[in-house]
Design brief:
single chain, 464 residues, alpha/beta, two-stranded antiparallel sheet, 6% strand
Length: 464
């Protein structure tokens, strides 16, 4: 993969990695300082970490028959919720810091693979500050994604270490692979990515031993869990119902989402159809980049296509695309461009820079949205708990105001057992505009009581 002399590659990457770590933490400070949370997951696990009755139910480490077998992620989530949930900035700081470490590991790995310091720095920041990583680092519910990618990067570090020995490398890769699989099923991408590395960096035999070490526990995992995972194909949850026929559409969604700077969720990236101007421009940018890689060498183009599929592989068959699923893809895409940079023509570099700028712009927009939702949650959930404390009885009817984003409150009330000791569960129901309501939810999350007057069906609302 590298054309640089050994002395160049032996340069210590630590100053570069420290710079990436600090810059990522500074750039993602709005995520760290977020006063609230993004979705129902954080609220549900906080409730599980502080049950109203009985002890905490920790997740079993050997319950392989459940669909989401993620004992490392779930137990860590419970433990962190016990200690940090009431202090959201500290909770977010853990996720952002872990994500910054991943970005630093990526930068150091790219230096070992022959990327210039500038290319490694910019690629790591493009990864960390793009829309996929911003989404992951800003949502506590993505602990598993941060862990499995960190394990993948550490395997890369083992494979590129000087004077690496075969069997210790294979054993280290196997242990990190096992750790990644205990975090999330998406870790099955790791052996596929190592296979791509074997092709792109053929002279380095260590990749093959890393692949063998990671592939063995991955194969055992698939054999052990195939029945459970296969059962999702006919399950009731459309998001997890999988089919090989989903693969091309999912892959396309993850690609064209990146340059569409105003798009928040990747699942909406094709809603406007293939004739939409933004889709056409995004697709042309990726085709131009692929042409630039092909001009630099067929192995680069093949590596890009195979690597993007490998990084996304386990989720491409699912019925719905989600931002966090492309976390590993974002790291791979940025890394490959850094390594290919010296071989790219000027026009191809211009395309890559344009895509990077759009990704950064997109990332800022995603960070702004994550922060906005957190600020709303920090107002809404305590207000809702306060109302429920004083209003025992039938389910409260809440109606989002016309200027409020209803989807935010749908998430924040979805199957949340309790909040700060106040039972919620089925005591809350969101109603559509025009329906009778007990409270109106304002755009900032505050609740306004509705006073019903004649004629029936009309109401006036006043702040609490």
């Amino acid at each position: 993969m590298s054309s640089h002399p050994a002395s160049y590659l032996s340069a210590r990457p630590w100053p570069l990695m420290a710079a990436v770590l600090v810059l990522t933490l500074l750039a993602q400070w709005p995520l760290i300082a977020n006063p609230g949370y993004f979705s129902h997951d954080e609220l549900q696990w906080a409730a599980a970490a502080a049950p109203l009755t009985g002890p905490v139910q920790w997740v079993g480490w050997f319950e392989t028959g459940v669909f989401q077998f993620r004992p490392l992620t779930f137990n860590l989530w419970l433990w962190l919720s016990q200690h940090l949930f009431e202090r959201p900035p500290l909770f977010h700081a853990v996720l952002v810091a872990a994500g910054a470490v991943n970005a630093a590991l990526l930068a150091g790995l790219l230096r070992r693979l022959g990327a210039t310091p500038r290319a490694a720095l910019l690629a790591a920041l493009a990864f960390a500050l793009g829309p996929y990583a911003m989404y992951v680092h800003g949502w506590v519910g993505t602990i598993g994604d941060v862990i499995w990618l960190g394990c993948a990067l550490l395997i890369g570090w083992l494979a590129t270490a000087p004077r690496v020995r075969r069997w210790p490398l294979a054993l280290g890769a196997a242990l990190l692979m096992l750790l990644a699989l205990l975090a999330k099923e998406s870790a099955l991408s790791i052996p596929a990515l190592l296979a791509v590395a074997c092709v792109l960096d053929r002279p380095r035999a260590a990749w093959r031993w890393a692949f063998i070490g990671a592939a063995l526990p991955a194969l055992a995992y698939v054999v052990l869990r195939f029945g459970v995972l296969a059962g999702a194909a006919g399950g009731g949850d459309a998001a997890y119902a999988w089919s090989p026929g989903h693969l091309p559409l999912r892959w396309l969604e993850y690609l064209v989402y990146l340059p569409q700077v105003s798009m928040f969720e990747v699942s909406s990236s094709l809603n406007r159809g293939f004739g939409d101007t933004r889709f056409i421009v995004s697709a042309l940018l990726w085709l131009a980049l692929l042409a630039g890689l092909l001009r630099a060498g067929w192995r680069w183009a093949l590596g890009w296509l195979a690597g993007s599929v490998a990084a996304l592989g386990p989720v491409l068959v699912l019925g719905t695309a989600y931002n966090q699923y492309a976390y590993g893809f974002a790291a791979f895409a940025a890394g490959l461009m850094a390594c290919a940079w010296p071989q790219l023509a000027r026009w191809a570099r211009a395309v890559a820079v344009l895509l990077a700028v759009l990704a950064l712009w997109h990332g800022v927009n995603v960070m702004r949205q994550m922060r906005e939702v957190g600020e709303i949650q920090a107002v809404f959930s305590p207000a809702l708990a306060e109302v429920l404390r004083d209003e025992p009885g039938p389910a409260l009817r809440l109606r989002p105001s016309p200027d409020a984003d209803a989807w935010i409150f749908q998430r924040l009330t979805h199957e949340v057992p309790h909040y700060r000791g106040i039972a919620i569960g089925e005591r809350v129901r969101l109603v559509a505009p025009g329906e009778a309501a007990d409270f109106t939810i304002q755009a900032d999350g505050n609740l306004v009581r509705c006073h019903h007057v004649e004629p029936p069906g009309r109401a006036t609302c006043a702040p609490l």
